[in-house]
Here is the input.
Amino acid sequence: INLRGKVIPVIDLRLRFGMEEIEHTDRTCIVIVEIEAGQTTVQMGIVVDSVSEVLNIQEDDIQPPPDLSAGNRTRYILGMARMEGAVKILVDIDQVLGEAEVKKLECATTR
Here is the structure.
């Protein structure tokens, strides 16, 4: 996409997680994130099904992810946050879209 004159790559998060592709609706959103890939910080867009709210979460409210003792099951989870009686799962976007994705983008842009 073109965001304020800067071209930003966009990745469908459903496809990244190996989920079924669905038709985009009026609730489908592109969320702009910054990821750290090695020594580089890159802006990317991620397509999500919907956004229900935007929260400011204090670092003190974040607890480590649960230990599921099953290998990589929590590798994409940054932590858990308790907010107003609910628990929010925080995704570690650097793990989801890390160096491998940046390398793919570099290859695609040099063609």
The first strand starts at residue 2 and ends at 3. DSSP finds three helices and eight strands in the chain. The mean pLDDT is 84.
